[in-house]
Amino acid sequence: MRRFLLLLSLACAASQWLAGASLRVPDRVQAGQELSIPTSGSGEATLYLFGPSYAAKRTVKLGGPVTLAGDELLSAGRYVVVLNGESSTFFVTAGPVSTVAFIARPSRVPASTKDGVSGTVFLFDRNQNLVLSPQPVSFSIAVPGAPDVQRQETSKDGVAWARLDSSRRAGAAQFVASVGAASVRRVVQEVAGEPCNIRMHAERAKDGAIALQTDPIRDCAGNPVPDGTIVTFTSVDASGRSTVDARIKRGIAQAELPASRQASVSVAAGVVIGNEIRWGGGQ
To answer: 268: closest CA among 223, 224, 212?
Structure first.
């Protein structure tokens, strides 16, 4: 009987000692923030901390708070703290968005193209943890002299993306993604689209050839088509077909076709066909 009472007393003492060292840890803490863990009991104990990119072991005194420094809790994820054989688990979550990784595609796009520009952002806190909580993300494209194109999206699992129409005016577009005070800028070169409403006129050259010249060539939004764009002039008469490819230079294209008493002359660029001239029989 006496031996049984002694064992019971030792078990009760051990239970009280373990209870004194039990861990009360919050479920979640923000990355980089200090964490204070209250303890009871007395004496010294060994504390272990295990995290995604950190592990530590040190001796602590019971009866007061045990502090985990912010530098020990920089990486988001699951942590385990062990004190004298008792363990507790908590999670470190990412802090506010501090930096934005921004991918913009393409680097060059025709003006006035629906859904022509796409942007993808990845959101990180100051410790480079992906911010998984939903965040409002603003996307905007601006070209001087044209209204801004804007879109608002909400991130999911640290990522947000959007497709925007390119501006109607050609130029260096400022493509910006922003979350709160964090923003990133990319440049997307918006160029003129396909030629629109090509007009040409003809006159007889000194050697009798047909001299052709277009009016300034623009896309349907009014942007000058880039120099170097190919324009095709074609003449069809009784002797057959003659074709000349000319490049736009300073906004216009010029060419000479063989002399003909009567011909049908046309102009085109890509899939866009311009006006037709009846040479020798009026226009």
So the answer is: 212
Considering the domain architecture, whether residues 179 and 219 belong to the same structural domain is answered as: no
Task: Give the whole-angstrom CA distance, residue 70 versus residue 26.
Answer: 15
DSSP-derived secondary structure for 240-266: EEEEEEEE-BTTB-EEEE---SSEEEE
Token pair 């025709």 is found at: 110
Query: In the 8-state DSSP scheme, what is residue 13?
Result: H
Cβ neighbours of residue 12 under 8 Å, at least 6 residues apart?
Answer: none
Q: Are residues 83 and 133 in the same domain?
A: no
Q: What residues are paired with 29 via a beta bridge? A: 92
- Do residues 220 and 193 lie in contact, with contact meaning Cβ atoms separated by under 8 Å? yes
List CB contacts of 49: < 8 A, sequence separation 6 or more. Answer: 55, 56, 57, 68, 72, 79, 80, 81, 82
Instruction: Dig out the tokens for 246 from the structure.
Output: 């000319």
Using the CB atoms, write b or e for 231-244: b if 16+ within 10 Å.
bbbbbbbeeeebeb
Rounded distance between C-alpha atoms, residue 271 and residue 173, angstroms: 27
Closest by CA position to 242, among listed 256, 261, 228, 224 = 256
Domain hosting 81: range is: 19-93
User: How many independent structural domains does the chain possess?
Assistant: 3
Q: What is the CATH number of the domain that holds 136?
A: 2.60.40.10
Distance CA 161, CA 272 (A): 34
* Domain CATH for 222: 2.60.40.1930
pLDDT of residue 23: 74
- Please tell me whether residues 206 and 270 are part of one structural domain: yes
pLDDT for the residue numbered 145: 84
Domain edge (last residue) among 36, 71, 93: 93
Q: How confident is the model at residue 207 (pLDDT cuts 50, 70, 90)?
A: confident
**pLDDT tens digits along 127-180:** 999 999 999 999 999 998 888 899 999 999 999 999 999 998 999 999 999 999
pTM of the model: 0.73
